[in-house]
Amino acid sequence: xxxxxxxxxxxxxxxxxxxxxxxxxxxxxxxxxxxxxxxxxxxxxxxxxxxxxxxxxxxxxxxxxxxxxxxxxxxxxxxxxxxxxxxxx
Length: 89
Known about the structure:
This protein is an all-alpha fold.
């Protein structure tokens, strides 16, 4: 399944955000910041990763619904994409 360029761009933006957040966590640890602040930043990074995954799965579901035969031929029948979704949920 080929992902649309807008989906790829969106996921890349989200991943870049995660990188910045993880680097921020490392700095916070080096600086001896409060635990609650570090956990808040970790939570934000986790949420951003989840959103990147959901964006990919949403694109896959859309593809499966719009092109069921092609999706099946590409190895992405609807049940496989649903399992991908459940891994993130």
